[in-house]
Amino acid sequence: DAGITQSPRHKVTETGTPVTLRCHQTENHRYMYWYRQDPGHGLRLIHYSYGVKDTDKGEVSDGYSVSRSKTEDFLLTLESATSSQTSVYFCAIRKDRAEAFFGQGTRLTVV
Amino acid sequence: QQQVKQSPQSLIVQKGGIPIINCAYENTAFDYFPWYQQFPGKGPALLIAIRPDVSEKKEGRFTISFNKSAKQFSLHIMDSQPGDSATYFCAASNSGYSTLTFGKGTMLLVSP
Fold it and tell me: What is the dihedral of CA A104, A108, B3, B7, to 10 degrees?
């Protein structure tokens, strides 16, 4: 798994509650990404980071925030979870502008 | 908006057949085109990738064909096996932009 750990792997939460997903890497790669995967939509970029404290929005960033205070950790926060955020979330890392490695995913259900 | 269009959505072939998955892109600045393979419950994993300075790349039974003028690229799987049954994603990026843009995926089933 290229040294990527996502936690938790599964989570069920109630509408309106805050949720934080964690991505941890041991590779010291510069780039880290959060994607969501939904049937019929493929992988869509939520946010990404190109260094500590350097982040930017992807195509589906509304309702999500991120933080990267250390090279190895990239956190994704849903400030107030909604049912439309039920999805599988993948973290990815990329050393340079080439191969990206993905984590095992976090299955989030918002009820 | 950067887009990568992938087809077909799903594909069924018999063992030994040659499934072909196609992708088209719009941004001529794209210069890196990977294919990812994903099994149920797992994250996508890089299968093979190509840059636009070549028209074809082979790795084992997997081949990427690239047509720069048509802005299209495709994945061929030779002598397909049931173990190749998975979802395949094409993607694209450019060296001046650090993100990967993915197609919507193709679910491949190789029947025994």
Answer: 70
Encode pLDDT of B55-83 as tens digits. Answer: 999 999 999 999 999 999 999 999 999 99
A12 contact B CB<8A: no
Domains belonging to chain B, first-starting first, are: 4-92 (2.60.40.10)
Residue (of A38, A45, A60) closest to A109 by Cα position? A38
- pLDDT score, position B111: 96
Distance separating the N- and C-terminal Cα atoms of chain A: 30
pLDDT in tens, B39-59: 999 999 999 999 989 999 999
Which residues 35-54 on chain A approach chain B with CB closer than 8 angstroms? 35, 40-45, 48, 50
**3-state class (DSSP) for residue B84:** helix
Question: Measured between CA atoms, how close is B92 to chain A, in angstroms?
Answer: 10
Question: What is the fold of A4-110?
Answer: Immunoglobulin-like (2.60.40)
Q: Give yes or no for residue A69 having a pLDDT over 90.
A: yes
At residue B14, does pLDDT exceed 60?
Answer: yes
Q: Where are the domains of chain A?
A: 4-110
CA distance B100 to A44: 9
A49 contact residues in B (CB cutoff 8 A): none
* C-beta of residue A2 within 8 angstroms of C-beta of residue B43: no
